[in-house]
Each structure stands twice: as C-alpha cells, then as structure tokens.
Amino acid sequence: MTTYVREKLLKNKPFIIFIFILYFLYTGYLFPSKGPDNPATGKKALEKSLIFPGLGQLIEKKYFNGILFITGELFCITNFLINNSRGNEAYENYKIADTTENAIIWREKVEKYDKKRNIFLLAGAGIWILNLVDIFIHIKKKYKRNISLSIKNGKNNKISLGIGYSF
Known about the structure:
Blueprint lengths: L2 H9 L1 H15 L11 H13 L3 H5 L3 H33 L4 H44 L3 E7 L5 E7 L2
Antiparallel strand pairs: 1-2
Helix pairs in contact: 3-6, 5-6
C-alpha cells in the first residue's frame, strides 16, 4: 500500500467505521427478521452486543442506549487510534533526535500519548462491559429465560467469555 493511500485511510478512520456499520445495516445483518417477542431475537441481540457495543440494544429497540454505546465506543476507538498514531510519530522523532534536550522532549510526548492511548483503551473496554451488562439484564427481564454470562480463566491463563442460553 502506498504511503499516500495509508495516510488517507488513517485520516478517515471514523468515516470507514461508519461505512462498515452502514454496510451491516443495509445487508440486514444487524436487525434480524424475526418478531420482537421471539427469544431467538434476544440471543441475536446478545451476540451483536458481543461483536460491537450498542448493536444488541438497537435490535431490542432501545435506541437511546444503543446510540449511546455506539457513540461512546467509536469515540474511544477513534481517540485510541489518534493517540497511538501520534505516539508512534513522537517515538520516530525521539529515535532521530540530535540533542539530548530534543530526545527528552520527544520521550515525554511519547509517554503522554501512550498514557492517553491506554486510557481510551480501558474506557472502550469499560463501555463494552457496560453494554453487555445492559443487554444481559434487558434480555433476562424481557424473555424470562435462563441466560448466563461468564468470564472464566481459560487454557494457558487466557480469559474466556461464555454465554449460556436455554429455551
């Protein structure tokens, strides 16, 4: 990929994410064709919320919550990518600094952008978890089904997420 194309894509990340969501809206992937009281719709809502925060709320017609989660997650992703890019640029400048003073200045900028990047990463993860709790509680109340959501310590000490759903 040429440098020009890469730079254009980096500048238009929110637009690309927006197009991605519109594509799934258009293809009908986000909104199932089943009726609103069908328990399978609740399962689809939970699955969509696992993929991206807010999609399950949109399926369940909780539009305010859905838009709130989507906007929050897009904000965190965008700022994560911006700060990551700025941190990489500052690191490149740090590596080629000609004086000790310049190296110190660029190193401080690298640390500043890395800290901001990590904050937005954690905020995005927090939004994702709040989204799952919200849709989990909503589905459990609406469909009165046994549903369980669990986070376990998987193989090789990796975190695994499990969903149990019974009809």
